[in-house]
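Standup notes
- HV: blocked on the assembly model, inputs below
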Amino acid sequence: MATTCEISNVFSNYFSTMYSSEDPNLASVPPATTFGADDLVLALSSPQMPLEGTEKASWLGEQPQLWSKAQVLDWISYQVEKHKYDASTIDLSRCDMDGAALCRCAPEELRLAFGPLGDQLYSQLWDLTSSFPDELSWIMELLEKDSMALQEPLGDQGPFGTGASQSPQASDSGGSDVDLDAPDSKLFSGDGFPDYKKGDLKHGKRKRGRPRKLSKDSRECLEGKKSKHAPRGTHLWEFIRDILIYPELNEGLMKWENRQEGVFKFLRSEAVAQLWGQKKKNSSMTYEKLSRAMRYYYKREILERVDGRRLVYKFGKNSSGWKEEEVVGHRN
DNA sequence: AACCCATTTCCTGGTT
DNA sequence: GAACCAGGAAATGGGT
């Protein structure tokens, strides 16, 4: 029924009023070309892609809680496009809210306002608040927990109130004490973690390959339907890249040797490995193993070999998002 | 259910 | 000798 054009029209009308009344900077966005779903999809599928001058998916790099009304609308329109939803059935007045308000909405409210799409919106929002930002916030969390003592969950608003979830996992999986320089000292105390590893290692051989996970249901039980895919797109090289480009996450873990060339160095190799292990819920990660994975990147040209330099690697042509130009778009 | 991908684990051997 | 580096081989888990 509703074609892409129709939807665009419906929303672009709304946009012109929104933008002109709210943010003079955004007012310049031409209504007709406000959002091409293609552009958005493209931007989405390759978050590393520099967003260039014109911010297409204005909401992309930002926490939903911080979205402006325009960004909320932008996002909703994207969801409409994405799900091929009939926009004409939507009560547009319901879209008049900022990110904080959106995040406060209960699933029923969204369903009321957006019909069946409401469910999609809810779960997508879930993804955005718990998965996408996870790309960074999880490191933040770990680092914060590292320095700060534990504190109770900031249980305030709706399901998205505090960014991630207050899942049992979220509250203790990272282990409130991330002893970055002391591999597996006391990590994962109460996570139901497979702690057979070390023991087995000491005594005899253990099975090769990745150890089985035990704490998987724990996070599925609270997500219910959201089970989709976890925080996708976070590969090792992206993890490394993010530590490098977000100084606030990089507490002396790594440094650029040559930013232009993409050459970087591990300063605290074991600490980085531990952090990676934290992310993968694998307490037995070591630099030895992490570096093996890094070496596999040579063949794929995600990394280039830098010989003679210990702990030094270089991003290759198949990596992205680390160049300064890219980072600007990525971050702000 | 089978396959593929991206690691993870282990290992041998070489280098700094 | 410790800490790395190079890769091969095999295993694993998530996604499709």
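- HV (later): unblocked. Residues 152 and 171 of chain A are 9 Å apart (CA to CA). Residues 1-56, 148-204, 213-232 of chain A have pLDDT under 50 and may be disordered.
- Next: hand off to the docking folks.
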